[in-house]
Amino acid sequence: MTDLVDTVRFDWDALDAWHEEDEQVFVHPRNPYTRVTAIRSSRTVRVQLDGVVLAESMSPVLVFETGLPTRYYVPRTDVNFGHLVVSDTVTACPYKGRTSGYWSVQTGDTSHADLAWSYDFPTAPLLSIAGLVAFYNERIDHIVDGDLAPCHDQSRGG
Fold first, then answer.
1. Where are the chain's structural domains?
2. What is the CATH code for 2-148?
């Protein structure tokens, strides 16, 4: 216990909200060594699972975040919502904000929980993803310009 003398423990969850100036910080303080960048693109991105095309867009926004695979955010008009089922899941990210919704995906008799999400009101640096939909690369197939896009879990193929 002597190692803990003169130390302070901070319980993030004990607070109702945390702000840096007038902007709310979600989940935990932002790491100054983490970079999150959103870039508009004209690459063709197709999202599919079990042979079902869930989305196809020629105007995605690519989000590059330190330690994560590229996330492809596509306009809602390019999403096939016939296979998406609204979920109650809400998550938060210190860099993007609080999600406005998640969707599970139904392909045939198989349900895949919480594969897609959206931020209606993201943080200021990520405003270009507002209202767009992203899918977990690790759990679906992203095809970019005709080629399978890599992800962290190569065994999944997405």
1. 2-148
2. 2.170.150.40
